[in-house]
Model the fold of this input.
Amino acid sequence: MKKKKSVGALSILAALIVLGGIFAAGWWGDNRAGNPSADVELYVRPGTAAADVLAELGPQMRRPASLERMFRSKQVASYLKPGHYHFGRSASSAFIARSLNNGWQTPVNLTLAGSLRLKGEIARKISSQMLLDSAAVAAALDDKALLASYGFTPTTVFALFIPDTYKIYWTATMEEVLDMQKAAYDAFWTPERDAKARKLGLSRMDVSILASIVKGESNYQPDFAKLAGVYVNRLRRGMRLQSCPTVAFVFDYKKNRILNADLRVDSPYNTYTHDGLPPGPISVPDKAYLDAVLNPSTSEGYLYFCASPAFDGTHRFARSFEEHSRNARDYQRALDARSK
Done:
């Protein structure tokens, strides 16, 4: 009789072990199998509660209960890290919880392009794509000590930025953004480009300043090298650059049209009243403008240009003031006719 009881007890114990193993295997597999029903993009801001993250992720999971268990098991409420996270369909509940606890972020694309003519525009561009506050970005762009560590000043900082699309963590600091830009700046300035600048008698900063002026004049790429050539030729002859975009910069680009009276504004950036180059770039120049200055079309000897009366973004170039005056009159007549 005792033997039968022992056999029965062992059978029950064996059954419990098997059932426990099945349950454990199911629990283990459930928490480590892919859970998202589609790719998930998640932004966690500082101070966000784990419950709010779970509420956002739950509807996007095939097994919400599995993720909830992992949040409790991994104590996500205590260790949740801010950041940008991307979870594919193969991401398990355990991986999602560990990622959030350890801050295993997915980089975002930071695109620096377009109209970057004022520090406020740079600040808005960066803050719209990252966690950084625009005021903090703007403050960094005026921080003399910080910029000096990169070899720039608040006046020359536009030259540090090389427009492109970069991979960076959403929670990166402004110092990390500047580190990234300094690396891009150093990569752009190859020995070949440095040699071209020296041959032209220009420093890196001179090239950036001229490139920003060319950018202010045109977005028609076939003319970039010719426009750069005009300014290089004028510098070589000791002529003032007489560039309207430099005057527009003085007024923070708030004037729709530069009038003759504006050309007399007292500013070191006014190339109508000051010789040589302005103190710094008047915008963030793109690579195409920088390369145009490094490869200027100077052989034609052009010293002047004005917009084409065709209003197609092209320019008419001239070697003499007389020829330039005729081109300017043609443009003015076309402009007057257009406004009637």
